[in-house]
Write a structure and sequence with these properties.
The complex is a heterodimer.
Chain A lengths: L1 H7 L1 H29 L6 E2 L10 E2 L3 H8 L3 H17 L3 H10 L4 H12 L6 H12 L4 H8 L16 H26 L3 H9 L4 H26 L7 H5 L6 H4 L2 H11 L3 H30 L5
Antiparallel strand pairs in A: 1-2
Chain B lengths: L12 H33 L2 H4 L13 H8 L3 H30 L7 H9 L8 H10 L7 H4 L6 H12 L3 H9 L4 H12 L1 H17 L2 H5 L9 H10 L1 H8 L3 H6 L8 H37 L1
Helix pairs in contact in B: 1-16, 4-8, 4-11, 11-16, 13-16
Classes of the chains: A mainly alpha, B mainly alpha.
C-alpha cells in the first residue's frame, strides 16, 4: 500500500480510503435494497419458481390487464381504503391523549401511564393475536361474559364475526399505536414557548382556553407531518395484522392489498401477477408521498422527507 | 404550568368537566392497555379446567402445570433459543454495521459523499415487495439459513441517519487531538466516537432487539426448517392449529404421573401459556428500556 500512498499523495489516499471503506456497504445496500427492484421486470413475464430469467415467457401487459378484470380487486381496494380511512379518522386521537397526559401533574403517575400505554407498541402482531384470541375468541372472555349476562354469544367470537371485522381491526390498530403516537405530541407540547401560557393566563384564560388557543395550535405542525405520512400510506395497511387475524369467516372483510399480494403470490403461486400488484402499490405510494411532500412545503415551508 | 394552582379557586364548570373526562379516559385506556396482558397471565397460571368457566381478576387454583407440560415438549425451548440468538447476533451486527457506516458518512473528505448518502437514504422509500424479496433471498441462498435473520437487516438507513446526526454533534477537538497523536480511522471510531455515542447506540440497540424478537415474516416465508423456528411462529402455530394443540395435550404418560393426573389441560390454557412465554422477554426488559424508547422517538421527531 505504501506505493499507492506515495504515488497519489497522502491526502488523496486518505480521501479515497473512506470511499474504499464505504464501498462494501454500498454493495450490500445494492444487493439487498436495489437488486429486488429488478424483480419488478417479472411483471412483464410469466415467472415460474425455479426458472431462470432467460427461460421465462414474455407476458406483455397481460398482468396489468388482469387487474381490471380481477373480480377481487374492488373488494380488496374497498377493505384497504376502509381500514386506511378509519386510521385517518382516528389520527387526532393521540393529540387529545397527549393533552390529557400533559395535564397529569404527578410525575410518577404520568410515567406509569406512559409506560403502560406504550407497551402495546412493542409487542408483535403475533402476540396481539394471541391476546385477542384469549379475549375475543370463541371461548374467550367476551363470550364468557355474554353467557353470564344471558346475551346470545358469537359462535366464533369477535375474531370470527364478519360484521365487526373492520371495527375490531381498527380498534386493535388504535390500541397498539395510540400511546406511542401520543409521546410524539408530548414532545411537541414541550417545545411550546411557556411564555405564551403565562401571557394568556394574565389575560384571564382558563385551562380549556389555553388548550384551545395555545396547546392545540402548537401541535398542528406535528399533526400535519404525521397526517401527510399517513395519507401517503393509504395503500399500505401492513401485512402482519391482517395476516394474523385472517380466517375464512372474515376473509371477505379483512383481505387488504398487502394480504392480497401474499395471497396471489406465495399462497397460489401467481408470482408475476403478485409482483404487478405490489409494484403498482409501491409506485402509487411514492407518487402520493411526493405530492404530500409538496403540500408540506407549501403549508409549512419545510419538506416531509 | 404549575401556576395553574392559582386557578383552583375559580374553576368553572367546563374545567371540572374536563378534569372528570380526563381521569375517566386515562383510567379506561390504561386498563385497556394492561388488562389483556394481565388476563393471559392469570389464565396461564390457573387450573385450566376451572379457568375455562371464566376468570377475570385472579388466578383460580394457582398451578404451573401448563408451563411444565409445555416445556416438556421439544419445540418451545429450541425456538426460544433461536429467537434469543437472532436477537443477540442480529442486534450486534446491525448496530455495529450501521454505526460504522454512519461514522463513515460523517467524513466530509469522502469523495461523492452526497451521492453515497442519497443512494442509501433512498432505500427507505423503495419497497420492491414480497415476491421480489422472496426470490432474491432465495437466490442468495438464505432460504433455510440462520443468516436470513441477521444479514439483510445489518444496515438500516433510518438508524444510520439517527446515529450520524448524533455523531455530528460530538466535539471535533477530541478527534483532532487523537489524529495528531497518530490515531487511525478505526482507532478514532472504536476508542473515541463509539464510546461517546453510547446514548444513541443504546437506544438503537433496544429498538433493534425488540424488532428482532418480534419478527416472524422471514421465518414464515423462507425458513421453513423446524430447527430454525422462532418462538413467534411457534406461538402462531399453537393458536391457529388445533392439531398442534391436540398434540401438545396428548397424554404424556410420564408427565401425567408426575402431575398426578390432577390437572386437565385445555387448549386455551396451552395457548395462553405460549402467549405469555413469547411476550415475557419484552415485558421484562421493557420497564428498564422505556427511557431509551422515548429518547428514540424524540430523535425521530427532531429528524422529521
Amino acid at each position: 500500500m505504501e506505493t499507492i500512498k506515495e504515488k497519489i499523495g497522502y491526502k488523496r489516499w486518505k480521501k479515497w480510503k473512506y470511499f474504499l471503506l464505504v464501498l462494501p456497504f454500498l454493495i450490500f445496500v445494492f444487493a439487498f435494497s436495489y437488486v429486488p427492484l429488478f424483480g419488478w421486470a417479472y411483471a412483464f413475464f410469466d415467472y415460474r419458481p425455479g426458472k431462470l430469467f432467460w427461460d421465462v415467457d414474455w407476458a406483455g401487459l397481460k398482468h396489468f390487464q388482469r387487474l381490471f378484470t380481477d373480480s377481487s380487486i374492488p373488494r380488496i381496494l374497498r377493505n384497504t381504503l376502509v381500514m386506511s380511512g378509519l386510521t385517518l379518522l382516528s389520527s387526532p386521537f393521540p393529540m387529545f391523549l397527549a393533552i390529557l397526559l400533559n395535564d397529569v401533574k404527578n410525575v410518577k403517575i404520568k410515567k406509569f401511564i406512559q409506560t403502560t400505554t406504550t407497551l402495546p407498541h412493542f409487542i408483535s402482531w403475533v402476540v396481539v393475536f394471541g391476546l385477542a384470541h384469549g379475549l375475543f375468541g370463541a371461548t374467550g372472555l367476551l363470550n364468557q361474559l355474554l353467557k353470564v349476562l344471558d346475551i346470545p354469544t358469537l359462535e366464533f367470537g369477535l375474531i370470527g364475526d364478519k360484521n365487526s371485522t373492520w371495527v375490531l381491526q381498527w380498534m386493535l390498530g388504535l390500541w397498539k399505536t395510540l400511546g406511542w403516537d401520543a409521546i410524539l405530541y408530548m414532545a411537541a407540547i414541550v417545545g411550546i414557548d411557556g411564555e405564551l401560557y403565562d401571557a394568556a393566563k394574565v389575560d384571564g384564560a382558563n385551562k380549556l382556553q389555553l388548550i384551545r388557543h395555545i396547546t392545540l395550535p402548537g401541535m398542528v405542525p406535528t399533526f400535519l407531518v404525521l397526517l401527510l405520512l399517513k395519507v401517503s400510506n393509504v395503500l399500505n395497511n401492513g401485512f402482519d395484522q391482517y395476516f394474523m387475524f385472517w380466517n375464512s369467516l372474515v376473509a371477505d372483510k379483512i383481505e387488504v392489498l398487502d394480504y392480497y399480494i401474499y395471497n396471489v403470490g406465495l399462497k397460489t403461486g401467481q408470482y408475476s401477477y403478485s409482483i404487478t400488484v405490489s409494484m403498482l402499490k409501491s409506485l402509487i405510494g411514492i407518487v402520493i408521498l411526493f405530492l404530500a411532500n409538496r403540500v408540506s412545503k407549501k403549508l409549512r415551508g419545510t419538506s416531509l422527507v | 404550568m404549575n401556576k395553574n394552582a392559582k386557578l383552583v379557586g375559580n374553576k368553572d364548570l367546563s374545567e371540572i368537566l374536563f378534569e372528570i373526562l380526563k381521569n375517566i379516559i386515562i383510567v379506561v385506556f390504561v386498563i385497556a392497555c394492561i388488562y389483556p396482558f394481565y388476563y393471559v397471565i392469570i389464565y396461564s397460571l390457573s387450573d385450566p379446567d376451572k379457568a375455562q368457566y371464566g376468570i377475570w381478576l385472579w388466578p383460580v387454583d394457582f398451578t404451573l402445570d401448563t408451563y411444565i407440560m409445555i416445556f416438556e415438549r421439544n419445540d418451545i425451548i429450541p425456538a426460544f433459543g433461536i429467537s434469543v440468538l437472532r436477537t443477540v447476533i442480529g442486534t450486534v451486527t446491525s448496530v455495529f454495521c450501521t454505526s460504522l457506516l454512519a461514522f463513515l458518512m460523517t467524513r466530509k473528505e469522502m469523495p461523492f459523499r452526497k451521492v453515497v448518502y442519497r443512494f442509501i437514504i433512498i432505500t427507505m422509500y423503495l419497497d420492491a415487495g414480497l415476491i421480489p424479496w422472496y426470490i432474491v433471498m432465495k437466490t442468495y441462498g438464505l432460504q433455510n439459513n440462520f443468516l436470513l435473520y441477521v444479514v439483510p437487516s445489518a444496515i438500516s438507513a433510518y438508524n444510520m441517519i439517527l446515529i450520524k446526526t448524533f455523531m455530528e454533534q460530538l466535539p471535533e477537538s477530541l478527534e483532532e487531538a487523537a489524529a495528531i497523536e497518530g490515531a487511525g480511522f478505526f482507532d478514532i471510531f472504536f476508542r473515541i466516537v463509539l464510546p461517546l455515542s453510547k446514548p444513541i447506540i443504546a437506544t438503537i440497540s433496544v429498538y433493534c432487539a425488540v424488532g428482532q424478537w418480534n419478527s416472524w415474516r422471514d421465518n414464515f416465508f423462507l425458513n421453513t426448517d423446524r430447527s430454525l423456528k422462532t418462538v413467534q411462529l411457534i406461538l402462531r402455530e399453537y393458536i391457529t392449529s388445533a392439531q398442534k394443540v391436540a398434540e401438545a395435550m396428548e397424554n404424556n404418560p410420564a408427565l401425567a404421573q408426575q402431575l398426578g393426573n390432577a390437572v386437565q389441560i385445555t387448549p386455551e390454557a396451552v395457548q395462553m401459556t405460549v402467549v405469555v412465554i413469547t411476550m415475557v422477554p419484552v415485558m421484562l426488559v421493557y420497564p428498564f428500556a422505556q427511557k431509551y424508547f422515548t429518547k428514540g422517538i424524540m430523535l425521530g421527531a427532531v429528524k422529521g
